[in-house]
Amino acid sequence: MTRVLQRVLVAPAVIVLTVVLLTTVPLWLLGAALLSPVVPGYLRPLRLFWVVLLHLVLESLLLVEMFGLWIASGFGLFLRRPFFERIHYDLAQAYLVIFFREARRVLRLKITTQGPTPDAFPGHPLIVCSRHAGPGDSFTLMYALMHWYHREPRVVLKDTLAWDPAVGVLLGRVPSRFVSPPRKGDPPDRLEKQVGSLAHDLDANDAFVIFPEGGNFTPARRERAIAKLRSLGLEGMAQRAERMQNVLAPRPGGLLAALDAAPDADVMMVAHTGLDHLVTVADLWRELPMDKQLIMRWWRVPRTDIPAGREERIDWLYSWWEQIDAWVDDHRPVDLPPLRRGPRARGAHPR
Known about the structure:
Layout: H1 2-23, H2 25-35, H3 44-72, H4 82-107, E1 109-114, E2 126-130, H5 135-148, E3 152-158, H6 165-171, E4 176-179, H7 190-199, E5 206-210, H8 219-231, H9 235-243, H10 252-261, E6 266-272, H11 281-287, E7 292-301, H12 310-330, E8 334-335
Parallel strand pairs: 1-7, 2-5, 2-6, 3-4, 3-5
Antiparallel strand pairs: 6-7, 7-8
Helix pairs in contact: 1-3, 1-6, 2-3, 3-4, 3-6, 4-5, 7-10, 8-9
């Protein structure tokens, strides 16, 4: 049903909204310009409007192009062939490259990386295990893996993200999984089987991406996760989760299934700052970072350093999440120096 609504209602609505915005751009620019002097941040409404409009234009173009590919593939008959899969990866990378370059320029963001990055291990499949703090970090991680490090991501995401029509359609045509919360009557290992099947047979340039927290960080979700651990009698894990202030208690099932399904893959742990809590339109208005330096930190965990037993792996994952929580505390976004006028004034470096 979700896919039908995407194609019949949501996708056309996005295209119509984009056309309406494009044909009324002068009015929106005037309104944003009038708001700018009374809103904190240099020209914040104008800059935010441009980023949103760019996203809608690129998303609409993606939808039109993917509709054309659906027709060219025999009305979907051959969409799963490697040729069409490669084209969809190329489309995703093109969108991310254009959007992030322009967003960094307009918002004046500098993204720096720390630690051993995925391009340091060519020819080896990786399991990328990331902190999750909103859609912004998911897009940034995909951009880094595809554009900087030339990886083909296989990603596990919440099913709610499938309501974004371009994301839902595109990821439905490449190796990925949209997972939903457990429902009454579901087999207890439903999620693990889905994740395991996606992580099976990783190629040399594949990166299996999973977010063990299972959702965006919010204080309310943090409290619910701790309460859930206590209701299951896992007091020790609940106490460890209470000591972590910036992350949710990780759910180990999916990662454990991926480790079993990809026994030759090393693990990359990923943390980042600056894109927290960007979930709703109100969040984007209040908290979208501008004129900041953001940091992305990578840690490589060799396969030989990962315990073999289930309980030991859960303890290992919690230890890493405690380290990520401490890292986030120590690496908040940094304001960039004021932009100087003149020929030397530049946008942000791509990393």
